[in-house]
Every structure is written in C-alpha cells, then in structure tokens.
Amino acid sequence: MDQHKRFLEACVSIVGANGVITDPSLQESFLREWRRRKVGRALAVICPSNTEEVSSIVRLCHENHISIVPQGGNTGLVYGGIPDESGNAIVLSLRKLNRIREIDPQNNAITVEAGCILQTIQEHAADHDRLFPLSLASEGSCTIGGNLSTNAGGTAVLRYGNTRELCLGLEIVTADGRIWNGLKQLRKDNTGYDLRDLFIGAEGTLGVITAAVMKLFPKTKHQICAFVAVEDLSQSVQFLNFLQQRFNENLTAFEIMNAFSLELVARAFPHLQIPQLQKSPFYILAEISSNADVAHLNGEIENELSQALEAGLVIDVVVTQNINQAQSCWQIRESISEAQARHGKNIKHDISLPISSVPDFVEQCDQALQRYVPKCRLVTFGHLGDGNLHYNVSAPPEVTPDDFLKQQKPINHIVHQLVHQFNGSISAEHGIGTLKKEELRLYKSELEIEMMQQIKKALDPFQIMNPGKIF
Length: 471
Prior knowledge:
Belongs to the FAD-binding oxidoreductase/transferase type 4 family. This is FAD-binding oxidoreductase. It is built from 18 helices and 19 strands. It has helices at about 5-15, 25-30, 50-65, 120-125, 145-150, 155-160, 165, 195-200, 235-245, 260-270, 295-310, 325-335, 335-345, 360-370, 400-405, 410-420, 435-445, 445-460, and strands at about 20, 45, 70, 90-95, 100-105, 110-115, 130, 165-175, 180, 205-215, 215-220, 220-230, 250-260, 280-290, 315-320, 345, 350, 375-385, 390-395. Strands 12, 13, 14, 15, 16, 17, 18 and 19 form an 8-stranded antiparallel beta sheet that branches. It starts with a helix and ends in a 12-residue tail after the last helix.
C-alpha cells in the first residue's frame, strides 16, 4: 500500500468517508478560482467538522509531510486558496466549521468558527441588536476564516477598520497539529508578543484559523447616503476632509467610482436606477450612520452638503430619503466588479496609497498606461476613505480581452512601480497568494522578506502550510 493510500485511509478514520473527497468531478469547485482563471489539483479535499478533527488531520499531514491548502469560501482574488497543479497537497475545507459558538452583547463580542459565512455573522449580530461592520461584495459566500487570513477590508474600514482591527482573539491549529486557544474577549492584553496578529493576514501559511472572537458594535438606526458628482479626484479628497470635519466617526464609508465604472453597471444591470447627476469624471458614494433623530440627521446632512455645493467642493449631489434608496446606492457600487466581469477579462489592481497622493497617482498612472496601451479603459473605484483603490485596466475597444491579458505583466509593472514611488502598497486587502508573490520581492526590502521567512520557518519547519503562497 503506497503512502498516499495509507494517508487517505487515515483521513477517513478521522473525518469519515463523506469528509474525504477524491472524485475529481466533486473536487472541481474547491480547485477552481472563482473567476475560472486558474485550476489546481489535489490529492483530496478534506472536510473536517470541528477543531479536533482539523487538529488530527494537520498532525497527520505533519507526520507524512503532506502539504495543506486551507480554504474558506474560495472567493479570493490572488489564487491563495487553491492548490498548485502537482496534485500532492490536500485542500482543507473549513466550511463545516460554521457554528456561532457564543455571543456576548454586553461585551460586544461574538465567537464564531472559521467557516461561518460573513453574512450569517452580520445577521446573527443584528438579531441581538448589534452590528458586525465588516462588509464585502462577497459577504454571502466568503467566510470569516478567509477574511481573517487575508485581513479583508471592505466598505466600512474608514469607521471600523480592517478585519484585524475587528478581531479580539483566535483559535489556531498550528502546523504540527496542536491547538492554541486564544479566544479571549479582551480589548487590552499586553502580555508579550501578539500571536494573534501573526496569523491574521498570513493567508494560511503559518497555521489554520479555526475560530475567532470578533468585535460587535451598537447597531446604528439610520444610514443616509449621498451620491455626489465631483470635478476630479483632488476635489474628492477635499470633500472627504470636509465630511470628516463635520461628521467625524459618523462618516462610515466614502467610496469613489469613475464614470466608466458606472457606465458598465448601467449596461450590465439596466434595472438599477443610477442617480441622475451632472456628468463628471468621478462620483462619490458617502454614507453617514447615526442613532440621532432621523429628521435632525437629514437636516444636518442637507445643510452641510448645501455648503459644499456653494463652496465648489462638489458639483452635484443626491441624498437618499429612506433605507431602500440607500440600499439601491450600495447595490450600484457593489455591482461594479460583476459588471466589469461581464464586460470582459481585465487586469485588476488592489492598491493602497496615502489618501493625499491618490489624485496625482491616478493622473500619472492613467497617462502612463495610455502611452503603453492607447485607448485602454480604466475602471477606477474603491474605498477612497482609507486610500484603497481597485484600479482595473480593460482592453481597448479593438483588442480582444484574451490578447489584452498577454500584456498583464508589463501593465502590472507600470502600475506597481508608480504605487511604489508614491509609498503605497501593491496589495491593500486581497493578499499576495501566488498572483503577486514575484512582485512582492520587488517592493519589500531583503530584510522584510528575511524576517517573514524566519517566522515561517519557525512556525512551519516542514513548509507544509499553503506552500508557494506569499513567498
């Protein structure tokens, strides 16, 4: 009996026959990146039901030197959750670890397993009159373990922070199969190295997140959105500062969308009613949330926006009058990625910059790309409130998307070189995976890479955890 057969039989003894998937047709959804751009192979897909089973499977892999690719909802964009093409690794699916273990409304904390769908956590918090503010376009299918492993951002970072800032504690299965219970509900714990932060954003390369304690917040009663037209990105930054001074932490989100991105949404989803504003190159979706009296809040917002119009900070504005209108505005914003996908394959960039540098970066990068690929079309949108842009490049009208994708490497170089010049980051919230690992070495110092590799070697000496990712 060969090693792999013995290994799989041992896996069956741990998780049962239904928890070990070896049929290629049943493995397909676990091995394919959701945009269908990359497909891997696996020895098996293993589906444990609890932390103890995860521990036993990881220990077995450690003893047999079998590589592990932890996977949540498989919604990532940098190929971090799928295996390579060797077929020697297992995919460790955490989808069955989907229990809400505890909610403590008085401590504003919720303990959840890694396979919990993000939307499920949001809804469970709402049932207890609390808010879990992490919000992503994929929230109906992504899992909290994946969100933590990539330190996901989303639309509410401006007010509530990234996933890292929303996490109080973790439960981890280490690379040798031991269980570390760090599920503390503390907001202050200054007792040595913060091990929690090592695993958040590590993309499954150091161990397996099996559960987490996440922060909750008082549920806000009123959300009012403003859809705003501005002359350029410089005016957008000025308007952001204006709203922050007026509304402080009540400014929950500040999203930017260029005109072409909204044009794609209008084509793909004609049923969505895009606000009729004066034509401009950029539009803003700002959300202000508060528990104040809604009439007072509406009056305050309309008064401040009137001042912004008079001061020339914006050129046109529409304010939502009810929750349905606000949700419609968000649906427009969240439909940009899908609209672009329907338009054709494109070259995506998930970048972050100092907010003050965003206008100059976009101007210079737009010009550089037009020189290299004349008539290419930019889909620029994202979370301007925290400096995170989704700066995507679509093919010129006369070029097929497949031919255009052949230019991905030089286009990435143009964009990322300018990001580096502006002291930005080539990955704001999607991670590195395999897609960006070569470029990571161009923009991280040798010392930074060396320290990360030392941490990897210390925690995963056999290099079995998500091999080939990040490094």
